[in-house]
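Model: Ready when you are.
Researcher: Fold this.
Model:
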Amino acid sequence: MADYQTGFGNEFATEAVEGALPVGRNSPQKAPLGLYAEQFSGTAFTVPRAFNKRTWKYRIRPSVMHEPFERIGNGNLRSAFDETEATPNQLRWNPFPIPEEPTDFVQGLNTIAGNGSSFSQSGIAVHIFAANRDMKDRFFFNSDGEMLIVAEMNSVRFLTEMGIVEIGPGDIAVIPRGLKFRVELPEGVARGYICENYGSHFRLPDLGPIGANGLANPRDFETPVAWFEDREGDFELVNKFGGNLWSAKIGHSPLDVVGWHGNYAPCRYDLRRFNTIGSISFDHPDPSIFTVMTSPSGEPGVANCDFVIFPERWLVMEDTFRPPWYHRNFMSEYMGLVYGQYDAKEEGFVPGGGSLHNQMSAHGPDLEAFEKASNADLQPQKLSGTMAFMFESRYVINPTKFALESDSLQKEYFEVWQGLKKNFKD
């Protein structure tokens, strides 16, 4: 249904109707085809050129045409993380159920944990979405942060101002802060994970000693071509602003951009195209070698958020405990599973579920995984049919009251390590 252009952060020019883009200038006295010119800025105007994000849109009606916003209920959506005390305990959840009542993407947002805030422009929120209804006459945009969306159950179609982005299990979408869209569910129901990023834009990590190639290649990120709808009617525009949901009446579809050019745009990425880098001698490397995108903080090398994946890959290390070792980290980790089995947690950690291990909280393989890996015949091994991921942050990630009181919380998670034996021999 959608066409794409490739390249992460490229300057694109695309029009759904020939002649929609002006030539040689951004805002002529009269825009082509009777359209309105509108700049969509993702950064301050004076950010260095290499990091400046902006797009010019040429639309049927300007974005200012809507009635005043009024506060509506937030449901299980949160952007303040002071409902509960931060905990050093290891936490894990079963998959959250698909709602029985008609629920669209916005209504199906459930906040699991987070840190920072949109006001400080730092930190992240972790949400699960579970929906069973299309958004038809309802539109949404998020003024608080960009959204990195990981599809887990079935496909999700984002019809945005700048084109159509469709993802399925194994894909991600990045929706810029402030971009309007509505969501369709081609298979009727869908579920997935969201990292709402309040800090610096996600970007590709530097490769350092890896060299010019490896990890996520810029050309594999796909940005949609121009697409629009010209509809009039009684519609609702929902805005997430200051941590709350606001609603305004609007008499037309805001997805009416006929052409656009710039580098501030949505994109999708197939995680199976990630070029994994690993050890071919001994030891299990740090998971930073699996970083797809990073949101830097003010301290070099210490991320506001890293998005890390654990896809299919070969393990060939000799005399090595191959799963992730037991560890206590400076960074806090929320982890999810899209499909398959994770090698360090073969039971209890399932697709649609998640785990939270805050900074310096010990975690690692459960008893069964430890025994299996310690006694395995170390031949080359292919980890097949698996896709796990991690949102990793320098800040403590605080679970919400909803997440801690949910029936999906595995209250006995700590028991997976209690059977580990004392093997020491003096």
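Researcher: Now this one.
Model:
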Amino acid sequence: MKILILIAAIVTVGFAIMTLVAVRPRKGQQRIVYKLEGPVGSTVIVTTDGTNRETVRLPWTLGFWKPRGTSTELAAQFWDDFEKGSIDATIYLDGQLVQSARASGTETAAVRVTIP
């Protein structure tokens, strides 16, 4: 029983450290957060920075750090052309909304920012 408590404590401390490192400001970098919203559970094809492509379900959020002076972008469209509703794509820079876009049907919702 003691070993289970010890393992749980180690996992909890490890998770807390990873969480603090993920949200801690990094010198010379800005915090970027992408958010996609729309019909819950809808499948969306997401392209980030023009190269990384994956399929996700709505709602979806991705946060990361990026150096100042670089650009970042997000594009999303429904996997199924007959999906009803719309996709709302937003990009946040250090917690502030920078840009948003909406698309439906076969359209692509795309947002882009150059980090000052």
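Researcher: Key takeaway?
Model: The longest helix spans residues 2-23.
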